[in-house]
Amino acid sequence: xxxxxxxxxxxxxxxxxxxxxxxxxxxxxxxxxxxxxxxxxxxxxxxxxxxxxxxxxxxxxxxxxxxxxxxxxxxxxxxxxxxxxxxxxxxxxxxxxxxxxxxxxxxxxxxxxxxxxxxxxxxxxxxxxxxxxxxxxxxxxxxxxxxxxxxxxxxxxxxxxxxxxxxxxxxxxxxxxxxxxxxxxxxxxxxxxxxxxxxxxxxxxxxxxxxxxxxxxxxxxxxxxxxxxxxxxxxxxxxxxxxxxxxxxxxxxxxxxxxxxxxxxxxxxxxxxxxxxxxxxxxxxxxxxxxxxxxxxxxxxxxxxxxxxxxxxxx
Length: 315
Description:
The chain is mainly alpha-helical. The chain has helices spanning 4-19, 26-66, 73-76, 86-93, 95-104, 112-123, 126-133, 139-152, 158-167, 175-187, 206-221, 223-232, 244-259, 265-276, 282-301.
């Protein structure tokens, strides 16, 4: 589930914490890195759970309306389309989903206002009204609405971000990414899979976990050597004047270029330049790109960069 870009970003965060810590410990901060990955996985399940919580809230509203002293015809015969959504039921019954929630004790029980707010936003939307009135009661129609729920009703909720910040310092930066992963998950659901529909694993494969740990360790262990390279190739500019986060970026990029033989140089550079756009100015990204180009040219001449694999030898 975790993309290489998100792995790099989380590694950056932990490296920053490591280098600014009064008690830096490689083992301690490596555990912190892996813990941050686990928390991202928790968020994946927590946000999936939200659509079920909204469904439960809708059911309570229906029950309350039926038990009015003088219920209306609509109260007695409500439109059950949303609360009987086949895809939501499939998530709710999913064996892996239920096991993970029980294991991690993930719940929204302490945040009823969030569920209420998301429900109200949903029922007031044109998409919900069209869905409820749609004569097509197929699984595909239910699936389409469930996907639209995650697209339209979560990312813009300020209350959701406040609640997530209360629960974990790791979550707010991950919301957009996780929503995209949930959408990708639901698109892969099939009615025939029943309660065994596939949810995403934390890592696509073991290589991604190894990549994260190695990138963190190599950047830490070789940080002084990489800093000297940066100083050497920073003309007319004192390193002390470069933002600390930019230095860590460059140290990570150098570590990746040198230590990961199977990753093309262009891929590494493009990834770091894209990431740094979110953390620095446009001028800063251009400046860093220039320094890295000079460093990589020098490393190539000195035989410090060895790439293996198809299409990588001359990269």
